[in-house]
Each structure stands twice: as structure tokens, then as C-alpha cells.
Design a protein that fits this description.
Layout: E1 2-7, H1 14-24, H2 27-30, E2 36-43, E3 53-60, E4 68-74, H3 77-98, H4 111-118
Helix pairs in contact: 1-3
């Protein structure tokens, strides 16, 4: 699994990047090897809204028609990360139980079977 962390407004400091990496390492074992997770972090402070942090997740899984997209708003960055991790965890576990992440193994043709068929 590839993990990409992007900042959509201001640069992300190393403490926040470390928190994101720690939280989302759990998914590395649960997802296929070709999957790609993009985490976007946006920091907004408006007079109208108290929601200062927005966290986006795009999860591309091979052999899955649509990517998984989740968006969470929160006042606190750590709270937003915990909420989005819980939502993504439920979604991945549910899809895995439904069999959306099931992959077929390639068929192996042995040479001795072909020789028997020729004789």
C-alpha cells in the first residue's frame, strides 16, 4: 500500500505527519499490495464556522470499481484523524467481509500435464 499525505492549504508539520502515518499503518496488512491511500489535510478558520480542520481520504483499490472517499470536519486535528480512521476501518472491514477485496489466484499450467494430454 502506498500512503500519500498532501496539504491542501498550509504546510503540514512533522508531528501531524507522524500522527497520520501511525494511525493508518493498520491498513497496510488489510489491503492488497497495489492500493493507494491519499490523505489530504486542510486547515480553515472562518468566522462563520468553528470547524478548523478538514481531513480527506481517497483510497484506490485495484479491482474495485469506485475508490473509497471519506471527508471529516472537526475543531481538533487529532479528533478528526481518529474519526476518519474509525470510519475507514468500518468501511474496509465491511467491504472485505462482503468479498469486494477477494482476488483470484492465477492458474498455473504444469508442463507434465501438457505432455500427458499429447500422448
Amino acid at each position: 500500500m502506498r500512503l500519500i499525505i498532501k496539504s491542501l492549504s498550509t504546510p503540514i508539520d512533522e508531528g501531524k505527519k507522524k500522527l497520520l502515518r501511525e494511525k493508518f499503518l493498520w491498513f497496510e496488512d488489510k489491503l492488497p499490495s497495489g492500493s493507494e491511500m491519499t490523505i489530504g489535510v486542510e486547515e480553515k478558520i472562518n468566522k462563520k464556522s468553528n470547524q478548523a480542520h478538514t481531513v480527506y481520504i481517497h483510497l484506490f483499490v485495484p479491482k474495485l470499481k469506485r475508490p473509497i472517499y471519506i471527508k471529516v470536519y472537526s475543531d481538533n486535528f487529532a479528533q478528526a484523524v481518529n474519526t476518519i480512521k474509525n470510519k475507514l476501518e468500518r468501511k474496509v472491514v465491511r467491504d472485505k467481509q462482503r468479498g469486494k477485496f477477494k482476488f483470484k489466484l492465477p492458474k498455473i499450467k504444469f508442463s507434465f500435464r501438457q505432455k500427458e494430454e499429447e500422448n
